């Protein structure tokens, strides 16, 4: 099975009095290792990398990698969680330099979105990703998120990129059932749901997993849902997803990662801090999220089946 399967958590970056809270970050890595998730994404959109300077980004990544190794004994298989690093930008040459730096780290891969703001042609997107994949010694996960980048990765573009041996997966946030199904049927790219509300249907179609910000909150339940579906227990997986769905929806009512951070703070795991221009979740939403989280916790828990 490809490494890019199961439930992955795109880690938030916790802050305390304006600085990165590395102690809280380590505690989160331990928490998610013990919850049975498949891997971590560092410096993805949920991690607020645009609000971190270069030194802070390097320090966050170093902490996550170090703690993943230290917490390996908490994992089901005793192995350190794989870590994928986000790489973003619209200057291909600069991104190649960054990828060269990341090649030296023990990463499972790199996550790359299309160049934002400049809206290149599909041919330009292919050339951009091919150049970055050529520079990378790690597997590449494409990040198709047009509402952030301003440009969609068309199906023909994704299929062309799938010919590169290091491009192995896609985080699918485009909202196109046709594209999702075509990629799954093509089978050269592992398809990871990137829109959390689409996790269930992506998995049922044959997708390999999800990179889910909402899995910060109830990671064990997301893992339980994935394992139920992987074992063919459709009714169990559906029941878990239906219990999670109201919480998933509420976590994206306001800009991510503010709602996730608010709920983690309410659980005492981090401080409820973001950096401008991001702002904290509203009081009304926090109250709603706490109620939904409590309601989901009260749902009957399934007996875990090893798969």
Question: What is the topology?
Answer:
Layout: E1 6-10, E2 15-16, E3 19-20, H1 22-35, E4 39-42, H2 54-70, E5 83-87, H3 92-102, E6 109-113, H4 122-135, E7 140-144, H5 146-149, H6 155-161, E8 167-172, H7 177-186, E9 190-193, H8 199-205, E10 209-211, H9 219-230, H10 234-250, H11 258-266, H12 283-297
Parallel strand pairs: 1-4, 1-10, 4-5, 5-6, 6-7, 7-8, 8-9, 9-10
Antiparallel strand pairs: 2-3
Helix pairs in contact: 1-2, 3-4, 4-6, 9-10, 10-12, 11-12
Subcellular location: Cytoplasm
Site (Part of a proton relay during catalysis): 45, 117
Family: Belongs to the DapA family.
In terms of quaternary structure, the protein is single chain
Largest sheet: 8 strands, parallel, barrel
The whole-angstrom Rg is 18 Å
> Using DSSP, what is the number of strands?
10
Determine the N-to-C terminus distance: 13 Å
Count of distinct structural domains: 1
Strand/helix succession = EEEHEHEHEHEHHEHEHEHHHH
**What is the name of the CATH superfamily?**
Aldolase class I
The low-confidence parts are 303-307
Strand content: 5-15%
């Amino acid at each position: 099975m490809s490494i890019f399967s199961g439930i992955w958590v795109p880690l938030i970056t916790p802050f305390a009095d304006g600085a990165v809270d590395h102690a809280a970050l380590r505690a989160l890595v331990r928490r998610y290792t013990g919850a049975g998730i498949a891997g971590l994404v560092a410096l993805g959109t949920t991690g607020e990398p645009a609000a971190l300077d270069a030194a802070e980004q390097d320090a966050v990544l170093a902490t996550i990698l170090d703690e993943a190794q230290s917490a390996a004994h908490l994992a089901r298989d005793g192995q350190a969680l794989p870590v994928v690093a986000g790489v973003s930008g619209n200057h291909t040459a600069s991104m190649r330099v960054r990828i060269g730096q990341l090649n030296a780290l023990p990463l499972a891969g790199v996550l790359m979105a299309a160049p934002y703001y400049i809206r290149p042609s599909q041919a330009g997107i292919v050339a951009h990703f091919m150049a970055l994949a050529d520079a990378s010694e790690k597997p590449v996960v494409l990040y198709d998120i047009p509402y952030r980048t301003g440009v969609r990765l068309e199906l023909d573009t994704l299929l062309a990129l799938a010919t590169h041996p290091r491009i192995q997966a896609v985080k699918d946030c485009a909202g196109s059932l046709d594209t999702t199904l075509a990629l799954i049927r093509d089978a050269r790219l592992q398809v990871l749901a990137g829109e959390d509300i689409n996790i269930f249907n992506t998995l049922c179609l044959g997708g390999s997993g999800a990179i889910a910000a909402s899995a910060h909150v109830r990671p064990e339940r997301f893992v339980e849902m994935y394992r139920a579906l992987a074992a063919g227990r459709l009714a169990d997986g559906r029941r878990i997803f239906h219990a999670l769905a109201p919480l998933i929806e509420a976590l994206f009512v306001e800009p991510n990662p503010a709602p996730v951070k608010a709920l983690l703070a309410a659980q005492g795991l981090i401080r409820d801090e973001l950096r401008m221009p991001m702002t904290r979740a509203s009081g009304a939403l926090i109250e709603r999220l706490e109620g939904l989280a409590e309601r989901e916790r009260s749902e009957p828990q399934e007996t875990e089946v090893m798969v």
